[in-house]
UniProtKB/TrEMBL annotation:
Residue ranges constituting the Potassium channel domain according to the UniProt record: 65-132
A Pfam short name: Ion_trans_2
Lineage: Bacteria, Pseudomonadati, Pseudomonadota, Gammaproteobacteria, Pseudomonadales
Keyword line: Ion channel, Ion transport, Membrane, Transmembrane, Transmembrane helix, Transport
Membrane-crossing residue ranges in chain numbering: 6-31, 43-75, 114-136
GO terms of biological process kind: monoatomic ion transmembrane transport
Name of this chain's protein: Ion channel
């Protein structure tokens, strides 16, 4: 168990830091584009902004899945990267199919990755929710301005 933690916790920490970087970049660009479009806000720009937030958060999660798959390859658990990637995605998304399992020596990395994944999906969801709420707020403000000039 200690060996699993020594192998998995640095990867988990790296993934957490990477997610923070993705969030920072995502929110920085979101605020920049939101500020730039405030004078001529449109439905299509809102759709584009929300789509970019969702795409970046999904990309971040996929990169983390690939990082875990790389760890599994380095530990010689799989012969092919695609198999490691599939197994990693099942763990990260907490699906738990069980059709591919790791050796008993490294099996506890699965729940560790699942804990990482559920946390990262939660963080991604909160970022997307914040962006949606911001779009709603700005839309409501513009509607109020039209009603009460």
């Amino acid at each position: 168990m200690l060996l699993n933690l020594l192998a998995g916790l640095p990867v988990m920490l790296f993934c957490l830091l990477m997610q923070a970087v993705f969030i920072t970049i995502c929110l920085r660009y979101y605020v920049h584009f939101r500020h730039a479009q405030s004078a001529h806000e449109s439905q299509w720009l809102n759709i584009l902004l929300l789509s970019m937030v969702m795409l970046l958060m999904s990309l971040s999660n996929f990169v983390q899945i690939a990082i875990w798959a790389t760890l599994f390859m380095l530990l010689d658990e799989f012969d092919e990267f695609l198999t490691a990637l599939y197994h990693s995605a099942v763990n990260f998304a907490t699906l738990g199919y069980g059709d591919i399992v790791m050796s008993s020596r490294w099996r506890l990395l699965g729940p560790l990755e699942a804990a990482n994944g559920i946390l990262m999906f939660g963080v991604s969801t909160s970022v997307m929710t914040a962006a949606v709420m911001d779009v709603i707020k700005h839309s409501m403000d513009r509607l109020k301005q039209r009603e009460h000039p």
